[in-house]
Amino acid sequence: MAPRTFWKGYLKLSLVTCPVTLLPATTEGEKVRFHTLNADTGNRVVSQYLDSVTEKPVREQDEVKGYQRGEDDYVMLEDAEIDAVALDSTRTIDIDMFVPDHSIGWVWYDRPHFLLPGDEVGQEAFAVIRDAMQATGTVGISRVVMYRRERAVMLKPRGKGIVLWTLRYGDEVRDESEYFDGLPGGKPEAKLLTLVRKLIDERTTSWDPGMVNDPVQDRLLDIIAAKKKGRKRASKPKAAKPEAQDNVIDIMAALKKSIQAEGRGR
């Protein structure tokens, strides 16, 4: 089944405009999901908010959002007040600027979406913008209202289309220097690097989506299929206990053994 269009609007660069459609590039629709049931009756369990002090149920119309400013002290906001600051969607992705493709670190990437021409008339304008970014090695930066908030977005050409990434807000990305600056400097021995590079070369292969299969999901599906047929699935064998290792490691010896093992395995 083809995914539903997530967003419709226009892609604009100066005076060049074309209709576009946006679809999520990822999905969680195939994930195994569970409901919480009453084990005695088999009925679904319904969750309900309780007052933390009185322990009495709270009606939906009495629920409000609260921003904590101190212990047991909150600033309460009505839904209307929160909705009032939401931005109206202009339905236009107006590319404000371009930056080198490699200049935006992966840590800023949030959610990917596929951007496509909205109709045949706009295909040429879409292709011109896409191919010009590809030729110059740049990505476009714009802003658009998505998920009820204005988001900075990056437009990156990919094949015949464009991938639109929502970018994380500035306060969501931690400063890496706070973590990495304390690490010891200096370069490892050249011999060690040579051995590790040999290991990397022997293990280098082409990317395949099968490398990121979810084994837990596969096992859950096996259990569900077995229960549908009224039989119990064989229990999972116990994993062997790992061998005890010394804290002191001879890196050179370990690398040589690894390369020998790689050779025997291949």
TrEMBL record:
InterPro entries: DNA_bd_Ku70/Ku80, Prok_Ku, SPOC-like_C_dom_sf
GO biological process: DNA recombination; double-strand break repair via nonhomologous end joining
Keyword ATP-binding among UniProt keywords: no
Keyword tRNA-binding: no
Stored SUPFAM superfamilies: SPOC domain-like
Coiled-coil region(s): none
Molecular-function GO terms, alphabetical: double-stranded DNA binding
Domain Ku: 55-188
Pfam families: Ku (PF02735)
Keywords: DNA damage, DNA recombination, DNA repair, DNA-binding
Subunit structure: Homodimer. Interacts with LigD.
Protein family (similarity comment): Belongs to the prokaryotic Ku family.
HAMAP family from the UniProt entry: Prokaryotic_Ku
Role of this protein: With LigD forms a non-homologous end joining (NHEJ) DNA repair enzyme, which repairs dsDNA breaks with reduced fidelity. Binds linear dsDNA with 5'- and 3'- overhangs but not closed circular dsDNA nor ssDNA. Recruits and stimulates the ligase activity of LigD.
Protein name per Swiss-Prot or TrEMBL: Non-homologous end joining protein Ku
Classification of source organism: Bacteria, Pseudomonadati, Pseudomonadota, Alphaproteobacteria, Rhodobacterales
